[in-house]
Amino acid sequence: xxxxxxxxxxxxxxxxxxxxxxxxxxxxxxxxxxxxxxxxxxxxxxxxxxxxxxxxxxxxxxxxxxxxxxxxxxxxxxxxxxxxxxxxxxxxxxxxxxxxxxxxxxxxxxxxx
Length: 113
Ligand code: 5GP
Ligand code: ZN
Known about the structure:
Elements: H1 5-10, E1 18-21, E2 25-29, E3 37-43, H2 55-74, E4 81-84, E5 100-104
This protein binds guanosine-5'-monophosphate and zinc ion (ZN).
Guanosine-5'-monophosphate is lined by residues 5, 16, 28, 30-32, 40, 86, 92-95.
């Protein structure tokens, strides 16, 4: 997908602080962290929101969800963490390539949810 920043990061065209990578997904640190630990889990194939997701992409998303506990362990998020998947403008989605925010490393409070 042209002009998609996360496609460019997934392709290695834009550098990122990578935490994990395999053939289907990439996890890297958010450039503007909202918590002590703030990473983004990004499927490598482009789709903007869950509404656009096809079956193969759903399998990758499942793989992401099954891998996240392991990644959270590597990040030292033993006390827990929060996942956020913004969908559309009312949710504040700014990058229209589906991604899962992984937030933790501190008490996140109850403000967001
Ligand atoms: P959204 O608001 O779409 O749910 O989240 C997009 C996230 O991507 C934001 O938290 C923003 O800080 C992050 N982001 C945007 N551009 C870049 C970038 O070039 N590199 C990294 N590492 N994060 C980015
Ligand atoms: Zn993309």
